[in-house]
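User:
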Amino acid sequence: MKDRRVGLFGGTFDPPHFGHVAALEAAARTGRFSRLIVTVAGDPYFKNDDVHPAWRRLAMAHAAFDDVALVEVSDVEVRREGPSYSIETVREVLRDADAVDLLVGADLATQLDHWHEADQLRELVDVGIVPRPGAQSAAPEGWRWYEIPMTPVDLSSTFVRHLPTTTSDLEKFLPPGVIPLFEEARG
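Assistant: Predicted structure:
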């Protein structure tokens, strides 16, 4: 049976944190989706930072999201050769879904026109914008978008990666199953 509407939530997830969990839980509460797919970027072409290997980030995503309602963690972008482009994943998901919403943080929504094959992506998806502190929830002109109703979470993977390795209070930022995987990754 074909999915009615899928929410596609992609990222590097290095590491996945409570802000990501809150966004997925808020999306699930909307009642809009039959399924939420988390895609871990195999080769994140927009990232300038060094990121951990895809297999490690995928394991952390499973630890963070496997118990969240409606969520399925996918390795589709990890298995794909070359850079990870959302348009390719959207086309693949549309084979088994009537509609796909791309779920993005408000800090990224303004960049949608610069994404790979943005003109085609704009035609294929609605955009669910996850509010972020200090960022306005809006997409560039021509995109169909709405805001995911939730209280913004002031947390980023970059912040967590830059915490001192001696930090002992990771439970404030990361789901319990992610902590040992993240600590092992950063040595």
